[in-house]
């Protein structure tokens, strides 16, 4: 399949610098002045004025009052117009899918759960049925909102570049099937992206520009999505984040991957004994390893096992990190449930499209 850049440009958003300006305005609740934007981007004030003029003309930003002045006349603040655009996010699971629409500020405008999944039938029929429901969501987008595209979050392994699944367990017909390509053909939208569910879920929370976040997903298995210095880390084969298969006990319980004593197997064994405390402690040990390896400063937790014991996991993971790091006060790590809850994958899939179109944060 032909490779093409992942981004989609809006009219008027022709270059990286415009995306940079929009990214800063998205990250800032109170907006920013042209002078601030020039200082933060390193662009000249003239270049910023030109970009802002174009974004104003396109309706992507608005003038939003006056800010503090450091002398001279007060500065006009600029803010993103959340209703100027939206994206569709899909969590494509085995039996069900969640389809939602997100505006540019990350507010969910519409959310539907449908009985369409990878195991529902032949791939062509599944994609056809899904495209029909997605088209309904696109048609229901608010008047005047430009639909930037559709993002799909799906269990791996898969290839982000080619938009295909790679040998999904128990679903041979999907191996190498051009899922993204067929959706693109079926939908009238500028951009379709396919990524691992854990990768997109990491995007479902407001991120610090320079920070590194790990999203840990404990459900039927255990995986991680990594946002390193604000960018999704996928690895060469979109196969980074196989966090659950680090071996912590070489003679431990058998794992689905064939090895023994993987973190995932240890968590699952504890959960099979109805012991979320022990599962949470193991998860914390693995999280501490990850923090030491990558200097992560924020951990988000999600997946149905986490939400089944929401008071247990954040505390146990934070405790294990504090216990295993040599200087926990210096290397402080925030641990919390994902703010997007059970919709984290679908929200993150829409966010991936918005980031791709408007400049990542
Ligand atoms: Zn394993």
Number of strands: 15
**Beta fraction of the residues?**
15-25%
Query: Which residue ranges are poorly predicted, with pLDDT under 50 across at least 5 consecutive positions?
Result: 1-14
Side by side, the strands of the main sheet go 6-5-4-7-10
Largest sheet: 5 strands, mixed
Please, what is the CATH homologous superfamily of the largest domain?
Answer: ATPase, nucleotide binding domain
Please give the CATH class of the largest domain.
Answer: Alpha Beta
Contiguous helical run count: 11
> Cα-atom Rg, whole angstroms?
21 Å
Q: What is the 3D form?
A: globular
- The structure class reads alpha/beta
Bound molecules: zinc ion
- The run of helices and strands is HEHHEEEEEHEEEHEHEEEHHEHHEH
Describe the overall structure.
The chain is α/β, with parallel strands linked by helices and about 350 residues long. It folds into 3 domains: about 60 residues, Winged helix-like DNA-binding domain superfamily/Winged helix DNA-binding domain (Arc Repressor Mutant, subunit A); about 140 residues, Nucleotidyltransferase, domain 5, CATH 3.30.420; about 130 residues, 2-Layer Sandwich (Nucleotidyltransferase, domain 5). Helix content is about 35%, strand content about 20%. Strands 6-5-4-7-10 form a 5-stranded mixed β-sheet. Strands 13-12-11-14-15 form a 5-stranded mixed β-sheet. A hairpin with a 3-residue loop joins strand 11 and strand 12. Bound molecules: zinc ion (ZN). The site of zinc ion (ZN) has 7 residues, from helix 7.
